Amino acid sequence: MGAAQLAQATVGNNAANASTPGYSRRRVNLVEAPSVRLSGGIFGTGVQAANVVRLRNALIDTQRRADSQELNYSQAQSSILEQVDSLLGPTGDSGLGNALNGLFSAFGDLASHPEDAATRQALLGQGQGFADAVRQTRDRLVSMESDGFASVSDRVAEVNSTAQRLADINSQTLAGQPDPSLQDEQDRLVDRLSELIGVRATTRADGTVQVVVDGTGIQLVDGARATALTVSGTPTGGTVSLSVGGATLGNPRGEIGGLLHMRNSSVDGLPAAISKLDTLASGVIAAVNRVHASGSGLTLAQSVTGSVTVSNPAATLATAGLWLTPVAGTLNIGVFDASGNFVSSGSVSVDPSTMSLNGLATALDALPNIDASVSGGKLVISAANAANRIAFGPDGSDSLVALGVNGFFTGTDAASIQVSSTLQATPNLIAAAQANFTAGTISPGDNRNALALAALGTSRILAGGTQTPDEALGAFGADVGTWARSASTRTSTQQALLDAANAQLQQTSGVNIDEGLADMLKYWHAYEASAKYISTVNSMIDSLMGIL
Amino acid sequence: MSASSTLADVLDREADLYEDLLGLLHEEEVALIAGNTRSVGECLARTETVVLQLRLLENSRETLVSKLTGRRDTRLGELPGTATDSLGRARSRLVTTLPLVDVMNRRVTALLQRALRLFDTTLDLIREAAGLDHQYTAGGALTRGTRPVIDGRA
Q1: Do A510 and B151 touch (CB under 8 A)?
Q2: Is residue A497 in a domain?
Q3: What number is the ipTM of this complex?
């Protein structure tokens, strides 16, 4: 009677916990009670309850946890990539596309009205708009990096507390009789660890659970002992890594793995997006400044100071760590008086493998009517006579661009891009014209440099001369979109797999070959056939997509 | 009917079939997640028919393109005088539908591979439990030995 009551109670408990997450059905194992020998013979005494066992299929559990960790890995990536895509994708809200088009359109306006002050002011506005959009976009990406670091730290803290709780349960288990409710909690905790970081759990004969970080062999929980994970790295920049007891976790899975991948990957993570944005910004800065540096404004400056600081002016230009390495070529420079009359011109041959910044300043200083020096690591070029002005001609060495002399933009990447503060203070210095040192002329109405600047908008100046600015931005957005779609597809596939494993877990009560073997083999063949049909459909789709 | 309008008709019918296939794949996905092997089998039977029809249409499509250009792999945009509305509509339907079928294919493939692995593992377990000297017929019957029962310890 007692055994029957326990069995009924167990069934009732199963029903009551039908909706409890992580609850496993129990079954009462009944065994024959010891017989008694009486004078009339041996009499059975019925059954007694041997124990209550949980019905749990370890194979499906393992599979479900593997699915769960992969789902969480993909979801973490997908969630961040969706944000990046919404920022940078074709319909993104960074405003980069409009700002880029606005910049080159404003250069076109300058070409139409090179002497118009309002047009110059509008160009400065468009330039600053572009620079702001680039910097803000980068700030958003860096902020995502920082958020990712904070999320990793939070999740690691949760891993540590979860592992400690498992160790505590192991400790209780070692101390007494295994309790099915504690075993359920063990399963829930292992499930959570799988979601967070991806683990493999093994239940030992003594009822304790040993937990190893999946794919590493590094133990998180062993008996009553839990080992803490630690996070290394900084919120932004560099690489964030995890370690356990001094051993680095190479490629963790789960949500933490996904977050770390996004935080660290230079292929399809946030560093990759930031690097691509930096490359785009550097390319635009270099191309615009290359043209602008060789032009002349409505008025000319008596002195120009480069915006780039060289830490070791004695190092050759090739090894000075410049953001853009100069090439061998000739730099032309001229001097005009305050009325625009030609005074003199000269040129310097630059060989970056032998010439340092100091050497360049010395060579420029040797030109007639020119003073040049290095101040605080920056190149300063002035007209020797304070009443005269300087004008730059073609620079085949890229030295002016590399040193930030007479540029439209200052800065070297997406983090530092700005419109030159000198131009903002004196818009007439915007170089719409080109000085003619041979004829000794400079004309205020000349728009040749503005035309060259406007033409950059449709020229293949980026990605090694293969893409226009618009195309480069489009390719950047397309790359990000591809990463996001790929992560999203992986997520939806993993979700389907996890749903299937969960459904199988719910059905678990044992496999009886008497009932199912024939069906199983039949369906095994059907499933295989179905997989083959899908393969056929794939090749037909490939063929058809090829002609669309 | 000109070759180009016939081609548009073929592509249109292919688009119809791929839309049907997308529905079938969705049904199969639901069945696989639910572990409903019978429904998966039913989906397979219907998929066989659709794939056969698609193969026939693909042959027709390749023959028509070959007739128009001398090559079987010419892109639709390169076909001479084929910039018709009907061809454009059919192409547009396929451009919309094929990527969806592709994504659904990947999901169903993953589910099928999972299910097959589970079958394999279960059959291995049964084989282990039954002993090495026992064989199963294609119908699933054991040729010798006692039929074992495996409970939730799998």
Answers
A1: yes
A2: no
A3: 0.76
